[in-house]
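Limitations
The structure tokens in this dataset are predictions for the assembled complex, not deposited experimental models. Users should treat interface geometry with appropriate caution, especially where small molecules or nucleic acid strands are included. An illustrative entry is reproduced here so readers can see what is and is not provided.
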Amino acid sequence: MSEYALLLPILIPLIGVVLLLLGARSLAVQRAGGVLFSSLTFAASLYLLFAVDQADYLVMQMGAWEAPFGISLVADRFSAVMVAVSSFMGAAVGIYALSEIDEARLKKFFFPLYLVLIFGVNGAFLTGDLFNLYVWFEVMLIASFVLMSMGGEKGELEGGLKYVCLNLLSSVMFLAGAGIIYGKTGTLNMADIGQQLMLAENADWALSSSMLLLVSFGLKAGMFPFFFWLPASYHTPPSAVSAVFAGLLTKVGVYALFRSYTLIFMPLFPEVQNILLWLAILTMVTGVLGAASHFDMRRILSFHIVSQIGYMVLGLAFMTPLALAAAIFYLVHHIIVKTNLFLVSGVVIRMKGSCDLAKVGGLCNSAPWLAALFFIPAFSLGGIPPLSGFWAKFALVKSGVEIHAWWAVTFALLVGVLTLYSMTKIWAEAFWKKQPEDVDTTPAKPVGPLVFMVAPIVVLSISTVVIGFFGEPLFEFSERAAAQLLDPQSYISAVLPQPAEVSP
Amino acid sequence: MPVSLLISLLFIFGAALVAPSLCRLFKDKGGCLLSLAPFAAFGLLLSQSGAIAAGESIRYHIEWFSSLGCAFSLRLDGLALLMGLLVTGIGGLIVLYASGYMHGHPRLGRFYLYLLSFMGAMLGLVLSDNLIVLFVFWELTSITSYLLIGFNHEEKISRWKALMALLTTGLGAMAMLAGFLIIGQVSGSYELSEINGMGDLLQGSPFYTAMVLLVLGGAFTKSAQVPFHFWLPNAMAAPTPVSAYLHSATMVKAGVFLLARLNPSLGGMPLWENTLAIFGSVTLLLAVVLGLFQKDLKAILAYTTLGVLGLLTMLLGIGTEYAIKAMVGFLLGHALYKAALFMVAGSVDHETGTRDVTLLRGLRRLMPITAMAGGLAALSMSGLPPFFGFIGKELIYKAGVKLGGLELYFLVAAFVGNFLMMALALKAGIGPFFGKENNDALPKKPHEAPVTMWIGPVLLGVIGLVLGLLPFLVTDSIVAPAIGSILGGAIPEIKLALWHGFNLPLLLSVFTVAGGFGLFMLRGKFWAVADPVRAAIRPWGAEAMYERIFNGTIWLSKAQTRCLQTGRLHDYVFMIVAVTVGFLIWAIVNYGGLQFEMDWAQFDPIKVGLVLIMIVATIVAVTASAYMTVLVALGTVGFGVALIFVYYGAPDLAITQLLVETLTVVLFMFVILRLPPLKSMSSMATKIRDAILASTFGGLMTLLVLKAVNIQFDHAISEKLAAMSYPEAKGKNVVNVILVDFRALDTLGEIVVVAAAALGIAALVATGFKKKKGAAS
Amino acid sequence: MGIAFAVSSIFLLAALFLAMRRILAGPSAFDRVVALDLIGGVCLCLIVMFAIYFGQGVLLDSAFAIALVSFLGTVAFARYLGRKERS
Amino acid sequence: MKYFILGHAGRILFPALIILSLIVLYRGHNLPGGGFIGGLMAATAYILVGLGSTMQAAKAKLRVDPVTLLAVGLAIAIISGLPGMLGGDPFLTGEWLPTFYLPLLGAVHLGTPLIFDVGVYLVVIGFTLHTTFFLSELAESDTEEGTD
Amino acid sequence: MSIVVAVLMILGSFFAFVAALGVNRMPDFYMRMHAATKAGAFGAALMLSAAALHFGSLRAVITALAIIVFFYLTTPVAAQTIAEAAYRKGEKLWPKSGRDQLAEDEATQSTKLR
Amino acid sequence: MEPLIALLIGVLFAAGIYSLLRRSIVKLVIGVVLISQGANLLVFTSGGLLAGRPALVEAGATVLEAPFGDPLPQAMVLTAIVIGFGLTAFLLALVCRAHEAVGDDDINAFDNTDT
Amino acid sequence: MMRILAFLEFILFYVKEIFVSNIRVAYDVLTPTHQMTPAIIALDVSTYTDSQISMMANFITMTPGTLGLTVSEDHNKLYIHAMYLDDSPEVVAEQLLNDYGKRVKRVL
Ligand code: NA
Ligand code: NA
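Predicted assembly:
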């Protein structure tokens, strides 16, 4: 019965969508439903996490059609932890949105669309089917397109248009890649594809389709040289939206890359390892350099998403148990921290009417509590121990040292310093510097009480600290998850009723 | 008792956490209360000294991120005890001092939070027995000192200097972390007590050079060795209690401490010794020479700190037992007098409103106690007997005269460094109090500092004197164990005394005193040229280099943004597609080849004709400049695709395609007046470039399709689906059965997509379009 | 029968080319719309021909779809092309 | 700006297209058709009405808010997946009533996949019409109201 | 039977061809409409009759008939709608055309077009 | 297999990419429409093409007689077409709205959020 | 009953007209010269119901040489485009109303 745990993180938000669409008129219903269903999803995701940790793999065949004929929902530890963390963000940002999302957006069905986004993200993490993954990506994309542009403001639309176009390009490449893979293997089940490629005497043909998927997922993940849409758009919508995008969306791309090269294209990994490695390095470097000259809090943070994605992909490129564990740990850490930073930026906007560092200042004295709440995620992102980011970076660099990947280690460390620079820039400008006098800082009329915005930030900050001090269980979990990733055969055995024996 | 190590740490961090509330409750008295925590820690550590002196070490260990090879282990040995006592003892006095110095400051609580966190981090650093834990505390000292240096953060210069310290030490720390990781990988452990026994293993490793250089990167930046020395004088931006603490007992000593810690495992090789000695000596000489040209009381002291750090590093590099003895002695002496001198300088600044030594003189009458403290400290620093400073200097010369050959250079360096340092000491500790009173030129009317502000310096000055007279108080209990830790062996027998008879070291001391006093008398000459000299050196200095690198990075960032993040979708698409094309070509050429089968029989006229028409329509759709032409062309393509679907037996698809295509056109028609006229904006060259790229991409897709269907796979799944369709899923239209049963989840996702799209379109339209040109209003 | 398919194919293909020519030549938007409408009709004929050729009656359903959409499309074009523009 | 003949044709074709769409929906499991195609056809019927007069008229003819259609359609699709779960089967498992025979229709299989298709049908109608109504507002605000 | 089917098919495609040719050869838009509307629908109807005969099944006959009826109901509507739209937008008549009573009425009686 | 269809797919992709590379924002919609057509055809083709054999069980029969056109890619394409429809419609509305909000139809003028 | 008979007669007439119409179109299209005298003429449909007007317009459109254009606002006039205006417009209009109008009125 624990298989139903797979279903809940998808079904709950979807039911929420339906009920909120039916309760369209009442804003109170919209608000209450948004929080209720995102919280329920979070609860369900925790259940899933525990169930998966017990059972190693949970598999459910949709429609009772056995794999590879029907669609499989599969959760290994990696999926489960991704679902759990993203649902956590979903719930936190849902509460935050109560006080940030204005009436106009609520009337345009903000919360149903928000739940669609969660639905899509969780679906993408849980599916075991390549084409179904495409569908989840599209669900996620359309929800994000709408959430990004629904305000109809100039910036949102400017950024949104690029976001939409490039992501559609990515979808097309995904579809093309998936089509070719189907053409060659006759199957869409990821475990089945993986098995066929392992059994094939020569799987070279799959390299070109794997390149299409690499570009597609890389684009969604915001990797170099595909990230352009991200800094152009992520800073434009309300912070609740930016935050959940920043935390979740690119991570789905990263997740898909991991799934691709640890399961679907496992045998091709050696061919692409160097590509992944250098793309990861360039992603780290270009992302962090992009941030260095920016002067708007959310723009800086957007570039750092790119840079941090590089670290995670680096873990994949190293492909050792420690590296993968580090990357998974990194994902969890980064989702929490980056979401939190965007949430903080929203509070800054609420207080000062802007998060342009040239216009904002003096927060350290006027809102010391906010300073503390910014300090924790910011310096965690900067890798300051003993916050979560330190351990993430440490584990990753350690894995790099172990395989003597000196260039990667060098850049990872240098980028760490520049990350710290960016965080101190925000700190120094927004919090330390005096409030510039000649700028208008009349904040917009607040939508709801500040406490709804602060409470999630507090919770996420506490999580960051707790992971920093007591993160060992999480890291051990990541190690177990990484071990699963490195053992595709057991994934295949869990999914397919009659897996072929593959000699490693 | 091992847990006492943890408790001493908790005292201080606990005090840090309660500091803000305590200061709110008790105002300035809060500082006095808070000073109890470091003193308690001091007592706790001191209570362990017996065991340490007996050659034991105390180790506390709990699991912490053990899967990363880390553990929270603390260890108290001789070196840790010495440093720990300095950190907590001087720390306590500083806390006390700050309560007077920061009297009435609105952010006193926050100041104590930072200061005590810093103290805790420093104590943790010296107590760690695990490289990673050490690194954790190391970074904590960086970040807390960042907060402290930038404490007066309304001023831009403070923020800039705080950042400078953070980035410089942070960069070093990254190198150090890499070094630690390599050490850990080679030795298989991060536990210092284990690593210290593996000197041979590490030194025999091919990565030895890398690990030494990387670790030195951390130590040199932290301890401000040339060429990373520039941040330290700039750290003066911090409130004076912080400077006093940072410079005497803590932060800057961390680097030297690290070198001493790793000396047993990494030391002894020429690379280690030469690098340390040379960089140390250069730092020493540079610091003292630059110090001569300083007019700011704190800056003078800062340069002497730099000098001392150089000297200590140099001694460590020389590495003989004498040198280590000298180093430990000097380290202890320096901590005592430097803290005192900074506090005195702070008091003078506090009471007179200036730190300009050209203005300050004759204060001894108005500030007698402070003057006394300053005098004691300055004399100790000058290395005059009977102060402890003298013992330290004698040890240095003793170590120096044992050297021979080229190494005598180090003796010369030590000598020059010492007498210049004496001159600086007199400038800072004696100059302001003697000579003719100059009170009218001072911004404030000076009077004696409050008791909290003089108790610390006086105490430290007195201790310097007492230890000079009675060195045995610390010889066996503290100094010798520390030397033992650094040398990595048993605790040596040592004897500290003021008088060793007439010998070369004594002669050198005499010359030092004479030279130092002479220079002190000439101080006005240096000040006269100070500004032009500093201005002349600056462009070639390390600080200018730092600024250049900093600005260069920002420039690089801007250049990169200009190149990559151009804001033009065209560039983005071009880049993405070009890279995809590159990847595909690479994949196809290297893996799989270009061969595919071509069945010419497939080219029957009607298909050729149809495809030809579709290609023409496609080209028209892309190139036409009138909407109707484009839409009609798109419609034609849509009809064509539908025909293909029909031809290949997909009626469902064909119908859907037709309906969708037409509805798309209908939707287009709704907004057509809202859309701008289609015009060509790119230059011909751009168009050609784009066309080439697009065609290459298209060609590759063609090739992939040809190759994809080259090998016929077995249709096992489709066949099974077709076989199950009617008997098991009760449907004869297999495609529909797939959609609503076999793969219903896809369909569920898909209807969510269209539902969301509908909401999105409504949301966009509902944002309030203006009425268009047709509208008469 | 084979000849019939061949002749039909040629006629229909020629019709498509001619319609395409009108699309290219215009001159007015209405001409293009009419040409598209005609392409719809010709495609309907082609679909019916395919249905006969393959002996698949179900393909006729697609012919209905063409009839429906080519009507809808033309009407939509007409409806919005006919709007008067005032300045 | 009304087109006399078009308006008239819209009114006549409307019921025919709706009935046709229902037929297409029902037989989709066995012949070309199904929820999508049926839904698009039904939407086409409303759009034709709208083109013949105004979209307001089509909206009035629809009576329900398209958003409600979206919600109800999604709800039906979800609910159709649930019965199997009561029996311990996974989500979206097809559950069928016993086959029975009706004059004209022959063997009738009724099951949850058909209900699912009904959900699809409603969502597609909802989507197409919601989109059409909103986008056509742009078109109509340009002309009708604007020119008077 | 198959001869009839073949003839109907050829005729059907022939009229489709005629429609396309007419669309290219006729001198003004309205006359092109004449050709396209009449011949296009007729060609399709013939084709569909061929199919109905070929398959012979009730389903096929009903389908073909339904499509023919639908086609003949919708084609004139579409044709008139587009012709009216074209006229309103001022699509020119062939210069050799005779009277234009619509224009006359519009001018004299101010018959307003909606 | 079908070299002609492969060629057509290539042309559709090329034209779509070329359109996406244009500066007029409306061309983006056109590009997306074309490129989606290309991708749909590609998926359709990938199953291997078989003329005139729909995957429909004959009246009276219970199993589908081989050979038949692969139904799985057909279902995928159908899904992709509908998704593409939704996205294209949204993109159209977005382009329209963005054109009005930014007041320009040159995508190069949409650079305020980047730099 | 009469209606049904009328309807059948109408269908037959319609089919005949369609055949004639298409042969004429084919002839015109295929022969080299254009021998038409097109014009736009008005039919007086003031006595017809809306349905009858609509039906007649469709009818006229699908039969030889005529194409419905529009209906006046007051529904009194149906304007058609005629390809072969051999007589004066009034005569042609009369003819058309006689041929088609009667039948339409009988059916509806
Ligand atoms: Na992200
Ligand atoms: Na970063």
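Some entries come with short summary sentences. For this one: Residues 773-777 of chain B have pLDDT under 50 and may be disordered.
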